[in-house]
């Protein structure tokens, strides 16, 4: 005798579909993380509250398995380097247009982080791109593509108001259309000169 299976309820089907979607999403996230770990990244742009921002660059790979010996980061317009932090055995140099870190070889698969404290001038929503060259014991890799989805994307971040140098406050015009500060100073200066001239004339007149 053939038995007919009990039909699956709509709620059971929904649970099954949700589990499948969550599983796929988790897989995609892990895959994305593995893909990103093969790049030189700008991990964070953390505002320090004093007009500067700490940019953290990182990698955990070499050049085709070779250890990394240097990292050269070009600074885009609007970014001025203040200070750096690097792993033990490494040092940094700056020339205004770029920052170079170099030191003891970092083995492929070993995470390394480099911090740059900088002032950043620009607009909210502006993308700042840092073309970077990773030098290894044999060979090097240029991370210079502007497109984040390219094979060798440059480290980058999008500015927020917190990461930018505060802009100076603009003078507020008076609601009644009164004179500006420069106009007021001009009037005061003219009045002072007039008073001085009058005083000189009066002294000369008294001496006659």
Nutshell version of this structure?
By secondary structure, the protein is of the alpha+beta class.
Structural features:
208 residues, alpha+beta, Immunoglobulin-like, 5-stranded antiparallel β-sheet, 4-stranded antiparallel β-sheet, 32% strand, disordered C terminus
Q: Outline the biggest β-sheet.
A: 5 strands, antiparallel
Which of globular, elongated, flat, extended, rod-shaped describes the shape? Answer: elongated
Global Rg: 32 Å
CATH homologous superfamily assignment of the domain at 36-163: Uncharacterised protein YcnI-like PF07987, DUF1775
Just give the CATH class of the domain at 36-163: Mainly Beta
Give the N-terminus to C-terminus distance in angstroms: 142 Å
Level of helix content? 25-40%
Distinct helical segment count: 2
| SSE pattern | HEEEEEEEEEEEH
If you average the pLDDT, what whole number results?
Answer: 78
Structural class: alpha+beta
Across the major sheet, the strand order is 5-6-3-9-10
Give the total of beta strands.
11
- Show unreliable segments: 1-35, 190-208
From the 3D coordinates, which CATH architecture of the domain at 36-163 would you assign? Sandwich
Provide the β-strand percentage band.
25-35%
The CATH topology label of the domain at 36-163 is Immunoglobulin-like
């Amino acid at each position: 005798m053939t038995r007919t299976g009990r039909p699956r309820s709509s709620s059971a089907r929904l649970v099954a579909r949700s589990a499948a979607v969550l599983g796929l999403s988790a897989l995609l996230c892990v895959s994305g993380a593995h893909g990103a770990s093969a790049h030189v990244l700008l991990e964070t742009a953390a505002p320090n509250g004093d007009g500067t921002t700490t940019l953290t660059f990182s990698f955990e790979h070499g050049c085709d398995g070779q250890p990394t010996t240097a990292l050269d980061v070009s600074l885009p317009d609007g970014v001025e380097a203040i200070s750096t932090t690097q792993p033990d055995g490494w040092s940094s140099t700056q020339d205004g247009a770029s920052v170079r870190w170099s030191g003891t070889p970092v083995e492929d698969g070993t995470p390394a982080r480099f911090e740059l404290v900088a002032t950043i001038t620009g607009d909210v929503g502006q993308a700042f791109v840092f073309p970077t060259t990773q030098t290894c014991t044999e060979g090097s890799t240029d991370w210079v593509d502007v497109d984040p989805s390219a094979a060798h994307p440059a480290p980058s971040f999008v500015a927020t108001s917190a990461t930018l140098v505060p802009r100076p406050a603009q003078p507020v015009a008076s609601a009644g259309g009164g004179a500006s500060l420069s106009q007021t100073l001009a009037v005061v200066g003219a009045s002072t000169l007039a008073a001085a001239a009058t005083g000189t004339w009066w002294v000369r007149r008294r001496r006659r």
